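Customer ticket, subject: "Can you confirm the structure for Replication initiator A N-terminal domain-containing protein?"

Message body: Hello, I'm evaluating your service for our small team and ran a test protein. I'd like someone to confirm that this is what the system normally returns, since I don't have a reference to compare against.
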Amino acid sequence: MADITIDQLETQTFYQIPQIFMSRTEKEYGSDGKLKAKVKWTSRYARELSNDAKLTYAILYNRCLLSIRSYREGKLDFVDDNGSVFLIFTVEDLMDLLDRGKTTVLKLKKELTNLGLLREVSQGANRPNRIYLQTVDASLWEKEYYVTEQNIVHSGQGNRAQTKVTYIHTKTEDSGGKVIFQAQVKSKATPDILTKGGGSKSEPPEKPSKSTKGGGSKSEPPEKPSKSTKSGGSKSEPPVVQNLNPTKIENTNIEKLDNSSSRKAEEISKEIPQPAKTEKLQTPSKSSSFISNPYYNLLQVIADRYNGKFSQFDLLTGEFQHYNLTHHQKMLIATYLENGYVTSEEVLGTIERIPYDCQSPLAYLLKSLNNLETERKLEVKIAAHRRAETYYQELKGKTG
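Agent reply: Thanks for trying us out. I re-ran your input and got the following:
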């Protein structure tokens, strides 16, 4: 065992792990020396990759550097025609390299693939796949802001006071400074309508409940009419607790609660409408669009062709790799059919043209359909422009 010296980098080599794979924090202290806030730099890589997967990326990256060095020496064994560096490793090779079992190696490869850090290209039967390590996406950096809340806690032994620091997540920004999360600041003075007398420091809702005989103002809760006493005087009563009977709540209040609720259902697809809400029915003008019945059969034919092409057998793992269209994805394809610029035969032809080693066949398909639709719209626009020119030229010739 020895200390690290200034010559350490010249005597030993290390694996390089990208900094975006790790989280780091910056803390801010006040003039009194107490912690005020914290900023945390993190990313999707840091949250979702296991430590073994991060180390696997570093090891494979080191092998890529060796391949680049060999290429500069004139060896072209591990560089393809596009200048991309690839690796040749069987599962057994990776097991020996990482010192892990087969199940763990397959899990690590899946982690890297799911985050776009690794892709494989099949070389045919009985030949190992080419492994292409992908560069990291620096735009995935996120900046999380936290404020501190310090509370004094008394421990059980000797009743000693200790300060407990709690971090409250207030905001998250992406690498470009755009706010992607903003916490809602909650008021500390929350009204409690079930306390004695029904009073609280905060104001009641602006819209009062039904007026009473005593006549309440908008800014004050209604009061009970004063009861006469034996001596002829009146006895002041505390404000009445609000009536919580749900059958007597006005519809406008229900709509307010419905609009501000954080549990509103999200729209699943263009085919399935939103669930019905309390006292609020959907109108035809506001309902989501439906895919007409004839497209269901066409979509099933398209899905069968897509699923059949991209269900592949991996010779290295002995497992099938399935790319199955989900209901939502089929609805995306149906949108192009419904617009009328793309036919089902053209969709099937596009599926046949997708390369077998494509890592994102759905994105390839949707982009191709979008390009085709855009070109068709431009074609229609040009034809309409030409017809208009011909019409006005003929009209000008007749009047001239």
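A couple of notes from the result: The chain is about 35% helix and 15% strand. The radius of gyration is 34 Å. Feel free to reply with more questions.
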